[in-house]
């Protein structure tokens, strides 16, 4: 049975803020010193509209604080090189204040191959001095107006033992000390937390900040579909098989209630938390992404996909072009289907019409931009859930003479570079010519669409394979 949707263009549209473009994630700070990382971020900013970038470890031992002859020596040169590059390309930092410089750490517990120290400071006063000096340095270098446009988030996932060796109370102490130093530097700087995984600690964090009169300008947390199931060592696809469709909307609604009227930013999310998940490279990720992003619009204020690039290192640096990494772009800069999904989202306008209709796996959204209207479709279900090829029929009521309509597709036959890579024999180290061919294979196929009916009530029909995205645009932008 066909999926049917109706859009009344005589109705009043509601705003569609592009919250997914506020911030995008990356790996850890030293990667930002690479020319290829910077080139890929510049491209993502220009083509997808990302305005801020967040990454781990700006305070790790890349040159922020060292102990030399029993004295603490601050050195911010590497940070300057990185932040100068960001600002030059028009991207601003969403500053994750982590991890602990080994010179002031209370222990030696680390995480990831780059050995990020996750212990509290031995003396909180040393941490405060670092934050104070670095903040003053940023204000002096970039000016208050610029630094006020940044966001400051304290730590990363302190509710997980892998990322914080201290207690919850010790994290709250760290947050209080950090927020007060930032407030002293400039009361208009924006600082927030608790930067937790799985929506954790939000009520407790806000209660603490209220009781202690601690500045909190926004709430941050993270979520992934598998947060509600699974366990250590479980296969990600097996976990996802037990996850309900639309789970991230449900989690966002809970966080919205707990955050109250404060701005709510998810600073990490993806279709799974697995670093090597083949679905990240496939059209599945694009359908999941579109469904999720448009589900949470109106609930969150920022929604930072993790990550923009496979230039990413936590266990080891990959060499395979397609290895199931988190990124929208491969290590060679080839756009994956998820990148193309963000491209379609970026092209949307900011006036959203109500779409009437319901289907088990197909969702539809109608958005106006200038003189054009785009109907965005996604056929999505969690792995191992039932899904089939669907015929989708859209009726547009109150439509003027449309002129022409085109459809852009992301599916197995369009925007599928991983299939082209396999046809090449899956080379681990593709030549430049092969990388160019993969880039061409990543392009979105565009075709004309027949328009049924006449002015006042027209119809459109599209075939949507499983885990596919399609954007039908009528009229001229």
Explain this structure to me?
With 477 residues, this protein is an alpha/beta fold. It has 2 domains: 3-13 and 351-474, Glycosyl hydrolase domain, family 39 (Immunoglobulin-like, Sandwich), CATH 2.60.40.1500; 17-347, TIM Barrel (Alpha-Beta Barrel). 29% of the residues lie in helices and 25% in strands. The chain has 12 helices and 24 strands. The strands form 5 sheets. It has an 8-stranded parallel β-sheet with strand order 3-4-7-10-11-12-13-14, with helices on one face. The two termini are 33 Å apart.
Instruction: Give the mean pLDDT.
Output: 94
- Strand order, sheet with most strands: 3-4-7-10-11-12-13-14
N-end to C-end Cα span: 33 Å
What's the architecture of the largest domain, going by CATH?
Answer: Alpha-Beta Barrel
How many distinct domains?
2
The CATH superfamily of the largest domain is Glycosidases
Query: Which bin fits the share of residues in helices?
Result: 25-40%
The name CATH uses for the topology of the largest domain is TIM Barrel
Provide a brief overview of the structure:
By secondary structure, the protein is an alpha/beta fold. The chain contains twelve helices and 24 strands.
Secondary structure: elements and pairs:
Blueprint: E1 3-8, E2 14-15, E3 23-28, H1 35-48, E4 52-56, E5 65-68, E6 71-74, H2 77-88, E7 92-97, E8 110-111, E9 116-117, H3 124-142, H4 144-147, E10 151-154, H5 168-185, E11 191-196, H6 202-212, E12 218-222, H7 236-240, H8 247-259, E13 263-268, H9 283-296, E14 302-303, H10 337-347, E15 351-353, E16 355-356, E17 362-369, E18 372-379, E19 390-397, E20 405-410, H11 417-423, H12 432-441, E21 445-448, E22 452-454, E23 457-464, E24 468-474
Parallel strand pairs: 1-19, 3-4, 4-7, 7-10, 10-11, 11-12, 12-13, 13-14
Antiparallel strand pairs: 1-16, 2-15, 5-6, 8-9, 15-17, 17-18, 18-24, 19-23, 20-21, 20-24, 22-23
């Amino acid at each position: 049975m066909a999926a049917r949707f109706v859009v009344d263009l005589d109705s009043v549209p509601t705003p569609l803020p592009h919250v997914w473009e506020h911030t995008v994630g990356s790996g850890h700070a030293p990667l930002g010193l690479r020319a290829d990382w910077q080139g890929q971020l510049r491209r993502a900013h220009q083509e997808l509209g990302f305005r801020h970038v967040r990454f781990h470890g700006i305070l790790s031992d890349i040159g922020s604080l060292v102990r030399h002859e029993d004295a603490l020596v601050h050195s911010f040169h590497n940070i300057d090189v990185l932040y100068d590059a960001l600002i030059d390309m028009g991207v601003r930092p969403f500053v994750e204040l982590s991890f602990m410089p080994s010179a002031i750490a209370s222990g030696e517990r680390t995480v990831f191959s780059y050995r990020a120290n996750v212990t509290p400071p031995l003396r909180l006063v040393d941490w405060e001095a670092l934050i104070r000096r670095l903040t003053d340095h940023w204000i002096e270098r970039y000016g208050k107006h610029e630094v006020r446009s940044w966001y400051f988030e304290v730590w990363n996932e302190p509710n997980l033992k892998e990322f914080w060796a201290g207690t919850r109370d010790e994290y709250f102490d760290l947050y209080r000390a950090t927020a007060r130093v930032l407030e002293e530097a400039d009361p208009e700087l924006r600082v927030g937390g608790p930067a937790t995984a799985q929506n954790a600690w939000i009520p407790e964090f806000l209660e603490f900040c209220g009781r202690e009169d601690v500045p909190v300008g926004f709430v941050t947390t993270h979520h992934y579909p598998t947060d509600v199931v699974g366990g250590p060592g479980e296969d990600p696809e097996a976990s996802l098989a037990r996850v309900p469709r639309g789970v991230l909307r449900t989690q966002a609604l809970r966080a919205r209630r707990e955050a109250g009227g404060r701005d709510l930013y998810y600073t990490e999310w993806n279709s799974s938390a697995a670093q090597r998940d083949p679905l990240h490279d496939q059209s599945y990720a694009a359908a999941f992404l579109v469904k999720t992003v448009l589900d949470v619009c109106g609930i969150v204020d920022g929604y930072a996909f993790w990550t923009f690039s496979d230039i990413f290192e936590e266990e080891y640096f990959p060499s395979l072009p397609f290895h199931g990494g988190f990124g929208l772009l491969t290590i060679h800069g080839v756009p994956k289907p998820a990148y193309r999904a963000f491209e379609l989202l970026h092209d949307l306008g900011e006036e959203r019409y109500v779409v009437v209709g319901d289907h088990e796996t197909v969702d539809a959204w109608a958005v106006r931009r200038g003189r054009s209207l785009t109907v965005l479709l996604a056929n999505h279900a969690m792995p191992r859930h039932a899904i089939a090829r669907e015929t989708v029929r859209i009726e547009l009521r109150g439509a003027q003479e449309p002129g022409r309509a085109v459809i852009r597709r992301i599916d197995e036959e369009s925007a599928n570079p991983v299939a082209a890579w396999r046809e090449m024999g899956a080379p681990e180290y593709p030549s430049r010519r092969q990388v160019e061919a993969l880039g061409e294979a990543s392009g979105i196929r565009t075709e004309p669409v027949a328009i049924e009916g006449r002015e006042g009530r027209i119809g459109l029909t599209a075939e949507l394979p499983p885990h596919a995205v399609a954007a039908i645009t009528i009229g001229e932008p």
